[in-house]
Amino acid sequence: MTSGKGLFLLGFLAAGALAGCAGGKSAERGAQAAEGSKPQGEAIQPERSGGEKVTEQDVNGDGKPDVWTYTVTEKDAEGADQERRVRQELDLNWDGRVDLTRYFDANGDPARETLDLDYDGKVDASYFFEKGVNTRRERDVNGDGRMDSFIFYERGTLARKERDTNADGKVDYWEYWENGQVDRIGEDLDGDGTVDKWTRNPNNAASE
């Protein structure tokens, strides 16, 4: 990858990393989020559904498309036809394959972004949005095709981190954040989906 391409990719990822907002709070809800994640091996480029039209763009001028925008035709309030953007696929490193897919809601705002970070055609990370604001991030850290790291935001602030540390498909580690630092950590030691051990004020405990 050339330096220009690398900067383009890193710039995009950095911009995504700065977004944030709301999420739920309980460990139980976190476990449900893990169980509700997308199936293993989700393709970064979904199958094209009926009625979708695609527009191609060549961003870097090499004669090959780098951006694919999918739209559908719908009726507006007055019954007239209008085009609505539903998805956009991007080739960030210009190798001819999709690396990032953006999904849009009925209002045209971002609803979800999926990224293929290792260029194998599968989703490695997902960002979720509400009213255009990033509310949750999920990541397949160990590469088994299943999300095992989750980050939640509330009002633009980091609120909670969750992890599946033993790759069994269930969250067993929770970090709750307050005022920019970890307030407490919960751990599920027996795999039943509930917290067995709490560590309060871990930053203070570490300094004692």
TrEMBL record:
<protein>
    <recommendedName>
        <fullName>Lipoprotein</fullName>
    </recommendedName>
</protein>
<feature type="region of interest" description="Disordered">
    <location>
        <begin position="24"/>
        <end position="67"/>
    </location>
</feature>
<feature type="region of interest" description="Disordered">
    <location>
        <begin position="185"/>
        <end position="208"/>
    </location>
</feature>
<dbReference type="InterPro" id="IPR028994">
    <property type="entry name" value="Integrin_alpha_N"/>
</dbReference>
<keyword id="KW-0732">Signal</keyword>
<feature type="compositionally biased region" description="Basic and acidic residues">
    <location>
        <begin position="49"/>
        <end position="65"/>
    </location>
</feature>
<feature type="signal peptide">
    <location>
        <begin position="1"/>
        <end position="19"/>
    </location>
</feature>
